[in-house]
């Protein structure tokens, strides 16, 4: 697998390093990404006007890719408005209040529920459901909002998405690339997923508890004007009516879960079902709650939801636009400029790294983790896992075995990094629902995830 690196690859790599350095110094990186997009276009096309167009087109591409997530967040926030103003949200979470009595229990219960739902429906629709149900409970239990976000992230976008035991989209991609059965990747991933999951979640909780005790993180909730700090409402519903509407809301989402399972809906389809249901609930409760003002209130809440969604995602679009260029977006925006055998800038860099290192079990495991992490930098997690499977196949041939373990390791590294735990533009769904800064959430996740990857890589060395 021979890949020739071009100036475009080196420019992209240099800008990644600059972006990482800027993030460490807590500086905004939008301008850096815009300059990177412009320079890539200028070097690739040799045309100033084509590269200028490419900046705008990359923004459009990123927005199209993010639009389903923007909309699901927006409609959930819109629905939350009417649930909070009517007091129905208090009735929804009432049954859970007796179980979650402190922030310890809240952290683990929220995470486990998120993991279970994400195994069946993937994290995006699960985020909406878990956030809606558990944020108010976590508030009363004393779990900081950043703690809720960390728990949802690590258990959903980390453990569940990287293992993907139910839907099996991830292991199928890696298994096909490695030329082995899906069942082999799933089996080999079990000890690695357990190791990664335990190390990251326990480490994250330890650091969170330490910050709470030292006063670095307040247990006071500040979820944001759009989702929590509602003005006192003149709406007055009877307790029985609130309970009935709360029951209807829960039943409708439970029906969604049943439909997603029986109809095998996943990804965008599952998100669309949750979103459509949220719009229906928003409309139904608004009609009952606001009566003659329902038409105006529905529109008003939808607008508020969309304003919240675009406010959150606005700062992410330039960043996502740059990193999408590392994959198939580059060809779509600038044309076929990369070498004929190129699999995208990011994947090419991963292949070259794999070709540069000497091979044994330790080096192979370390390289698969690094290759997986590099391919996850685009914020997808899935774009580079086929490469991980291909590299695992090459390495296993050289060292005489371990293809399933290496494949599973590359898959875990790629998805933990890019699937939504430490890339700021990938943690947006959880950050938006919880009302936290995505960069702050990514920063909190970095240390547990890095420690987890190191320990998991060491375990893999002994399993090969």
TrEMBL record:
Transmembrane regions listed in the UniProt entry: 6-24, 31-51, 66-84, 104-122, 188-208, 244-264, 270-290, 302-325, 413-434, 446-463
Highest taxon above the source species: Bacteria
Cell wall biogenesis/degradation in keyword set: no
Keywords: Membrane, Transmembrane, Transmembrane helix
Ranges in coiled-coil conformation: none
Protein name per the record: Transporter
Organism: Clostridium magnum DSM 2767
């Amino acid at each position: 697998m021979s890949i020739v690196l071009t100036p475009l690859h080196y420019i992209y790599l240099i800008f990644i390093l600059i972006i990482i350095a800027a993030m460490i110094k807590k500086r905004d990186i939008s301008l850096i990404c815009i300059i990177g997009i412009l320079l890539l276009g200028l070097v690739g096309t040799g045309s100033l006007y084509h590269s200028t167009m490419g900046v705008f087109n990359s923004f459009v591409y990123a927005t199209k890719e993010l639009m389903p997530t923007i909309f699901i967040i927006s409609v959930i926030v819109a629905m939350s408005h009417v649930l909070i103003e009517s007091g129905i949200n208090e009735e929804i979470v009432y049954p859970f209040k007796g179980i979650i009595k402190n922030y310890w229990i809240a952290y683990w219960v929220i995470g486990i529920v998120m993991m279970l739902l994400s195994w069946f429906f993937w994290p995006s629709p699960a985020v909406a459901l878990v956030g809606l149900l558990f944020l108010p409970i976590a508030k009363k239990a004393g779990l900081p909002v950043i703690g809720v976000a960390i728990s949802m992230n690590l258990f959903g976008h980390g453990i569940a998405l990287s293992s993907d035991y139910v839907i099996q989209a991830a292991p199928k991609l890696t298994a096909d690339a490695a030329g082995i059965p899906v069942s082999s990747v799933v089996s080999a991933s079990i000890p690695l997923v357990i190791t990664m999951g335990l190390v990251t979640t326990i480490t994250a909780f330890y650091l969170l508890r330490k910050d709470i005790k030292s006063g670095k993180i307040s247990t006071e909730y500040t979820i944001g004007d759009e989702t929590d700090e509602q003005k006192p409402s003149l709406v007055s519903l009877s307790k029985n009516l609130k309970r009935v509407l709360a029951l209807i809301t829960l039943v409708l989402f439970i029906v969604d879960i049943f439909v997603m399972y029986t109809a095998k809906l996943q990804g965008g389809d599952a998100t669309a079902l949750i979103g459509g249901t949220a719009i229906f609930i928003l409309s139904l409760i608004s009609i009952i709650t606001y009566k003659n003002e329902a038409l105006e209130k529905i529109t008003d809440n939808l607008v508020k939801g969309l304003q919240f969604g675009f406010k959150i995602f606005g700062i992410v679009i330039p960043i996502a636009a740059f990193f999408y260029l590392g994959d198939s977006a580059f060809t779509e925006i600038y044309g076929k400029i990369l070498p004929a055998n190129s699999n995208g800038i990011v994947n090419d860099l991963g292949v070259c790294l794999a070709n540069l290192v000497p091979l044994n079990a330790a080096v192979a495991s370390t390289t698969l983790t690094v290759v997986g992490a590099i391919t996850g930098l685009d914020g997808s997690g899935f774009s580079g896992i086929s490469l991980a499977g291909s590299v695992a196949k090459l390495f296993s041939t050289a060292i005489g075995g371990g293809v399933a373990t290496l494949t599973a390791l590359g898959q875990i590294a790629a998805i933990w990094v890019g699937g939504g735990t430490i890339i700021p533009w990938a943690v947006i769904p959880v950050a938006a629902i919880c009302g936290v800064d995505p960069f702050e959430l990514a920063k909190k996740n970095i240390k547990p995830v890095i420690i987890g990857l190191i320990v998991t890589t060491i375990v893999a060395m002994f399993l090969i």
